[in-house]
Design a protein that fits this description.
This protein is α/β, with parallel strands linked by helices and about 250 residues long. It has six helices and 13 strands. The strands form three sheets. A five-stranded mixed β-sheet has the order 3-2-1-4-8, with helices on both faces. The chain has a five-stranded mixed β-sheet with strand order 11-10-9-12-13, with helices on both faces.
Length: about 250
């Protein structure tokens, strides 16, 4: 039987899967991704998409610590840039070489370096559970990467903000000259610094024109959003923002 490729989105509270060419989604909830029944999820994918399935695992950005590291002129080789990025992660909380697989995006010369730390334990646990049903995880990516590839250069502004809803919060990507300069995540439903409307109001002051603020419509924009809303072009109504993320980048 020919292998079928599916996208599986995983957030801190939900999972959503779609297969290219199918508008419908398979989805479910879990209390904690590190304790999810991924073998059962694999069986659900086989039932919906057929066996075996090749899986592209898309992790919410909140599950993957991100850093934007300044360029250092004395570190210009691939190995030196990687060491620079790893050092930056290791000086912060929660990430070690053993706990996370760190990947850097090679920048233009002199520009900041975007790096993402993928949680090894979670990825291995999900892959092992899915494999029980013959589903092979052959790619792992944080949600911001496919979103950036498709929508990151579409603002027409030197500086811009691209924000979108996920199933476990909101991701905001600040860009300058086509390069990422900051990645922020917030729960979206908390108070204070976690309040999405207040966060967007603060971000608004950093740009000369409201057209630089873009909301990718994986979910409803926070109240009072004044920038440009970008449709994800999904067929029908997404079952959740995570489904919208897959529709935006699948």
């Amino acid at each position: 039987m020919r292998s079928k490729s599916a996208h599986l989105y995983l957030s801190g509270s939900t999972w959503v899967a779609v297969r290219r060419g199918l508008a419908s989604a398979v989805w479910g909830v879990h209390g904690d991704p590190s304790s999810g029944d991924w073998a059962q999820v694999g069986r659900s994918l086989v039932e919906a998409f057929g066996r075996p399935a090749r899986i592209r695992l898309v992790l919410s950005t909140r599950l993957c610590p991100c850093l934007v590291v300044p360029w250092v002129s004395s570190r210009f080789t691939a190995s030196a840039v990687r060491d620079h990025v790893v050092d930056a992660f290791l000086h912060g909380p929660g990430v070690t070489a053993a706990s996370h697989r760190i990947e850097a995006v090679w920048p233009r010369f002199g520009r900041p370096i975007l790096a993402v730390a993928y949680p090894r334990g979670l990825v291995d646990e999900v892959a092992a559970g899915l494999a029980e049903s013959g589903c092979l995880v052959d790619a792992v990516v944080a949600s911001l990467h496919p979103v950036l590839r498709r929508y990151g250069t579409a603002s027409g502004c030197d500086s811009s903000l691209l924000a979108f809803a996920e199933d476990d919060g909101i991701t905001g990507i600040t860009m300058d000259g086509g390069q990422v300069t900051q990645v922020e995540t917030l729960s979206g439903w908390g108070g204070g610094l976690e309040d999405a409307a207040l966060w967007l109001a603060r971000k608004r002051f950093g740009f000369e024109d409201d057209s630089a603020l873009r909301w990718l419509a994986t979910g409803d924009a926070p109240e009072g959003f004044v920038g440009k809303t970008i449709s994800v072009g999904a067929s029908g109504s997404p079952v959740s923002p995570g489904h919208g993320v897959l529709a935006a980048c699948a």
